[in-house]
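This protein record is not my work; I was only asked to verify it. Take the sequence as given and treat only the tokens as open to question. I have pasted the whole thing underneath without changing anything:
***
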Amino acid sequence: MVLFSMTPVIEAAVERYNHEREIGQAESEEPSLDQPTVGNPISHGQLIDISNHFKEHSRKSEETSGDGTLISYHLNDLLRGTRIYVPPPKPKPEPTSEYKALMARLRVEEEARSYERMLNPVSQPESFSQRFPSAAYHNDLLARQNAEIAVSQEDDVTYAEINRQLALIVNVLVSIIACSYALWMVGRYWSTPARLALAMGGSILVAVAEVVIYSGYIRRVGEAKEVEKKKVEEKEVFDTWIIDAKKGGEKVGQVVGEVLGMDPADGLRLRKGK
């Protein structure tokens, strides 16, 4: 059963319907229409009955209200502007006397506890920073020291790399100069342009060779690192022994000494528990 909320048009139609319907008409379980008011519920079946009643028993299904408004009693006009009726929420049940007495007792107890806390406030737990006020300073100092150590280690690595690069450059320059001087001395009986060309060509050849050799070294080192990363470490258990305090516990020292390759006379001694 669908219920709608009464509108002013439905209210007027119900009042006229109550005035014209026969006395003693059977009443159903649908909402009562004895006191029609805007907002009261009315079923869809009742609206159909009202519309059919005006069609059968009335000369006209439209009339003019006191303010000159035309009122129509057709079903589509009665349904215009209405909404689905939503019943109001049920009122909350009145609390029992036992509930009221319990709430009053709890309120009195809470007020007493509040008053007690006001007279004897509970000391707040002391935090770590309050208990050890210098801890923050030591933490900051330790953090600064760690940062300085990290920076120092990074600087050491940087300096070592710079020294290695400088040594490499010096070695290459020494090789080039020594080779050019040797070739200059080898061609001492040649003309000056020929000796210069020989020395310059040898120097360039040595420089190219040094670059190629260093590049090959760097490439080999990189390949070796990749190979080492791909290797899977395999572990193998060579021997096992059981240490039991109840059975053979006195021989633990000798067994450990033998495993470590120590003289049994100088082996580890078992310390008995108290």
Summary: The beta strands are 3-5, 41-43, 62-64, 70-72. Residues 3-79 form one domain. The radius of gyration is 54 Å.
